[in-house]
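Entry for glycyl-adenosine-5'-phosphate complex. Fields follow.
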Amino acid sequence: MITLKSRFLRIDFLISNSLKTYKAIPFLYLCPMAQKEDNLKDIISHAKEYGFVFPSSEIYDGLSATYDYGQLGSELKNNIKSYWWKSMVQMHDNIVGIDSAIFMHPTTWKASGHVDAFNDPLIDNKDSKKRYRADVLLEDHIEKIRQKINKEVAKGLKRFGDNFNEEEFLKTNPNVLRNQTKIDDIENRMRETLGNNDLEGVYDLIVDLAIACPISGSKNWTEVRQFNLMFSTELGSVAGDAAKIYLRPETAQGIFVNYLNVQKTGRMKIPFGIAQIGKAFRNEIVARQFIFRMREFEQMEMQFFVRPGEEMKWYEYWKEQRINWHNKLGLGQENYRFHDHIKLAHYANAASDIEFNFPMGFKELEGIHSRTDFDLKQHEEHSGKKLQYFDPELNKNYVPFVVETSIGLDRMFLAVLSTSFKNEKLEDGSERSVLSLPPALAPYKVAVMPLTRKDGLPEKAKEVLDTLKFDHNCQYDEKDSPGKRYRRQDAIGTPYCVMIDHQTLEDNTVTIRDRDTMLQDRVAISDLEGIIRKKVSMTTLLK
Ligand code: GAP
């Protein structure tokens, strides 16, 4: 149960005992704001209980780091995809979408550098037998030092109140300066060692910083080794290296190899983008934290092709566009931050992550990368085909540069689910679990319910449902008491419940209950669709 800290005025409604009429009894109570505690376990069990996410092949005890999306999970996932696709493709007349194959010619991955360089530096702890990514151990260590700086800032704020000048404080406070120097030193050494594939240097850095295994506390480490993350399989019936193909580790290469097809057939002019949503596969060393790091996952990627030399302008542009896309969902601006990469991927000249405040802390949600002309040039070289663009304004041919935005759909799902999930204690002593999902993303937009299963109310409810189902995903629910049914809909994040009662039969009005305020209104059936649309429409997010 999440403890409740923040408080504000709220009005709730109680259902009268007779359950024939609904009496609004306003009262004050403590409102739970989502708290960033370690509530991942609660989220996982809620996701399973209500059909959002199941462990894959569970009847065989599951498969590590593989999950299946259930009946509600796939609806939520589709809505996230739709928000991304609409904002990328539909809202930009210079971006188009494709759907390329998961299997690609094996030379693709030689050209892209994935065969030789898509490695993670791994290190094992000899006592706990746990395996870690060496760069993640180092980044976690830096984060701990950063927390110390944050604590100093909090102390300063407490001490000086309104007179506190954070910028000045960060430049002058001796403790902050000492810790910042430590961070700078570590980052410099990381850049040097990781950037130059100096695995011994990475090992020395871990030892010098006295980094211990988070499980055993032991500092008894193996050497650092490289581990390729691609899954391979064999094409057809031929065995051996000749038939070896890979499951794509990113969707981006399907876009690069189709760059000229799309540019020519779509008569695209630079700058233009190609977007794609699809599965990607990585044999992650440490796959954990529910759907955060999986071996099979989905990406939503967009490659934006630009003139050489203009890539930094577009890199900044897409950083801003993407953070705006996130902010519009209303999950809280304070839950996002940018993190510039120290160790750049082999293809990038600039890269930044949008990190999200997941239940386990700030972690990467999306990457924005300036990929230069690396990929297209490599494919030119390996395929022997020209992948150039004739720029009529400049009157010359060139290989375009690329700025990429790449977001993990499953991580976005976790961001939405974890921020929306709350256990609330109401003033009357009862509790409710609620998913305050952004209404446009909710699996069901409205639940239609007859007050009782007699007197023609179910028939009337189905009539109402029939008028709504063309525009909205609706659920019909007649089992159990109205209170229980409301709780059930709260728990799956349905923004509205519509109750058909005896008055409906007389005057064609219904009550409509709001998930978040729990307020009920009596409205005409003819106004229902408009009221629901206003709240759940994706248009407001896209504008
Ligand atoms: N095409 C560039 C690319 O793939 P990336 O930073 O390796 O860049 C992009 O991946 C996004 O894909 C990440 O920000 C993350 O959201 C998601 N992602 C990467 N590995 C993942 C995994 N093992 N499980 C779930 N999502 C993952």
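NOTE: The mean pLDDT is 90.
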